[in-house]
Every structure is written in C-alpha cells, then in structure tokens.
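Section 3.1: Structural characterization of target chains.
Under the original work plan, the team committed to producing a structural model for every single-chain target entering the pipeline before any wet-lab resources were allocated. The record below documents one such target. The sequence was received from the expression subgroup and is listed exactly as submitted; it comprises 201 residues.
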Amino acid sequence: MKIVIGLGNPGKEYERTRHNVGFDVIDILCDKEGIRLSKLDLHGQIGETGFGENKLVLVKPQTFMNLSGRCVTDVLAWYKVDPQDVMIIYDDIDLPLGKLRLRKKGSAGTHNGMRSVIGLTGREDFPRLRIGTGPVPASWDLADFVLSRYQTEEDRAKQFRAFQNAADVILEWQRHNIDSAMRLADARNKEAEEKNEQADH
C-alpha cells in the first residue's frame, strides 16, 4: 500500500495558489486513477483504490497548511504504514517554477507544512516531491507570494505540465520504487528545460 498526501489549504480562496500544488497534483491523480475523495476523516479528504500491496490512498489534509502534521499523524496511525510508504507533495519557493525534486527523506527547510509534519510525527524519512514555485520577486512579501496565483498564461501552462509530470512520477513510485521515480523526475525536468529553451528562441 502506498499513501500520497498533497499539502495545501482548504477553501476556494486558496485554489490554484502556489501554496496548493499538493492539492493540484492530488486532483490530477484522482483523474488518472478514477479516484474520488469521498471520505472526510482523519483531518483530511481521502480516496482509495486497489487492494493489498496495490492499494493507493490519496489524501488532502483539511487542517490548513501550518497544521498538516495532524492529518499525517492520523493517517499513519490508521493505515499502519511505514513513513517510507507515504509520499508528501508540496511547494518549494527555492526551486524554479515547474521544477520537480524527489528525495527519499530530508528536513523541512522553510516549509511550515513540512515543519508541522516532522514536528508531530517525529520522523524525517518520508519520501517527498517538491514542486518549484519560485523565485520570489524582490517586490513581493513571501506570505503574499505563496498565497498568490500564477500571473501569466505561460506560467499556468508550465505549472500544469509540472503537475502532470509529478503525477506520473508518483505512479512510478507506487508501481515500482523510489529510485525509478527519481530517474523519471530527472528525465521530466530535462525535457521541460529543453522545451523552455526552445520557447525562448
């Protein structure tokens, strides 16, 4: 069984903002796998498909970003899985817009949602897929920037491609392993960079 938790803030006012990339990727995974987030429990919206080792669980925490650890803690306890079987998706302002970075474990960095997760679970060994939303313009306040929406059609298109790639990387992890998923993430980043270079010329 694999569990995918996309971090974000509930509510229409936060939809499609930079801080909600985790929710956006969960939505795409739901479409790809025919999953409906029908259960509101464990401080989150939850959908499931498959059985046994092939079971896939998708989760959107409903606690708001800074308390994401409440949902992750409840999900771990309910499903009785190891942290290595839980993938967490979230935004990263230190990565360029649309870039993917998949790691087997790590610190929270400056991300308040992951700080909550690590603080309440006491674990850092969650696989995590970060999606770039940076850089932060010098004229912007950080809190305002992460809660803002993408400014141009080009940025929206670039990020949508990143979400599609992220969903493919997660399914690669679920069906195979983390190393295979990391290779796919690197390959998709390279493809995206080549497309961006072609668009600039």
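The first helix runs from residue 21 to 33.
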